[in-house]
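Example record for the data management plan.
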Amino acid sequence: MSHIINTDIPQWPGDPNVQFTTVAQIQDSGYYLRSFTIGEHSATHINAPSSFHGDGISIDEYSAPSLVVSAVVIDVTKQATENPDYQLTITDILNWERENGTIQQNSTVLLYTGWQYKWLDQKAFFNQDENGNMHFPGFSKDATQFLITNRKISGVGIDTHGVDSGQDTNFTTNSLILEKPRIVLENLTNLDQLPPQGITLVIGILRLRGGSGSPAAVIAFF
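Corresponding structural encoding:
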């Protein structure tokens, strides 16, 4: 569920560019080796509480069990096609539950918007207007609070560059979810290949000391 990392991936404004530097060649050293530079919130990644809360834990403090979670997928591709600023609503959640059953406690809720197909086109992925404002879908504050309070979820994920919509410059969903060491996954892909429920995610991270997040290798079993 992770995108391949290269130097052309969509990058949040102000984030460092991805760079690869060859430091050893087979013909010279007997082996091939590169160094790389990448932001903690680049490519498919996980956010840690410290990225939005000064007293929050960093990514190296997540336990191994906390990175293996059950998950469900809510499909809002139709709504996002009609409105790129679409935000998941409580009604969307209840409609999903009528067909699939109540979202179980400690589930991670993945939002499939269809944005994964725009990954290779940075202009389309961020969808900025003439004023530089971004337009892509996400979770609404009400839906996020409902999921935390009423469903006691373990986290959220999405196939855009932010669980908050492009119009939410306050990062509301990130802040709410990461008040505790929950899961926030961004820039996911292949959500179309997952069933609505019965999914187990295994989230591989770089255990960066003091890290605000980490590029992530996310594998889904169902």
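Summary line stored alongside the record: The domain at 40-221 is CATH 3.50.30.50 (Glucose Oxidase; domain 1).
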